Amino acid sequence: MLIYEALTFKTEGNTDVINLTPALQELLKRHQIRDGILVATVQGSTAALSTIEYEPNLLEDLRTILNEIIPPRRDYRHHLTWGDDNGHAHLRATMFGPSISVICRDGELLLGTWQQIILMDFDTRPRQRKIHVAIYTED
Predict the structure, then answer these.
(1) Is 121 in contact with 129 (CB distance < 8 Å)?
(2) At 78, is the pLDDT very low, low, confident or very high (cuts 50, 70, 90)?
(3) Are 40 and 133 in contact (CB under 8 A)?
(4) Which class for 7: exposed (0-12), middle (13-18), buried (19 or more C-beta within 10 A)?
(5) Domain boundaries, the chain
(6) Which of 25, 115, 122, 137 counts the highest number of beta carbons within 10 A?
(7) pLDDT above 70 covers what percent of the chain?
(8) What is the CATH class of 2-137?
(9) How confident is the model at residue 14 (pLDDT cuts 50, 70, 90)?
(10) What distance lies between CA 123 and its chain's CA centroid?
(11) What count of other Cβ atoms lies within 10 Å of the Cβ of residue 48?
(12) Closest to 9 (Cα-Cα) out of 89, 114, 86, 120
């Protein structure tokens, strides 16, 4: 059986990080999913999904290292294409990717003790981000 839902999140851009874990866990509960595979994909080329220990200092470390590796204020060739300023956002999103898959067992996402699923919005402005979720189950 396949269950599909789309979730929308308001982001602030500029490496805004949102913890998706509670919303995804709620989907499992609402649909009474015990065992299966959850696949989530963010729509858009300047956002990505990943996991992290969702705590303020580590989130700040993430932003700091991304600013060092792919700084926002740089002359990216992408800016010449559309006259915008988000070349770094596209590159950051490419590093992480748009999707994540997590096994569900006994009604829970199989994540580590401190591991959380996150949405990262790298664009230069606030956005409405749509997360497409598919849950494959035999329940």
Answers:
(1) yes
(2) confident
(3) yes
(4) middle
(5) 2-137
(6) 122
(7) 99
(8) mainly beta
(9) very high
(10) 13
(11) 22
(12) 120
Rg (CA), the chain: 16
* pTM, two decimal places: 0.95
Q: How far is it, in rounded angstroms, from Cα 14 to Cα 115?
A: 22
Task: Give, in order, the Cα–Cα distances in Å from 74 to each of 12, 46, 60, 86.
Answer: 21, 16, 21, 10
Q: What is the DSSP string of 79-93?
A: HHHHS-S-HHHHHHH
Helices (H), the chain: 21-30, 56-69, 78-82, 87-96
Average pLDDT over residues 107-115: 98
According to the model, what pLDDT value does residue 70 have? 98
Enter the tokens of residue 109: 């996402």
When the pLDDT of each residue in the chain is averaged and rounded to a whole number, the result is 96
pLDDT of residue 82: 85
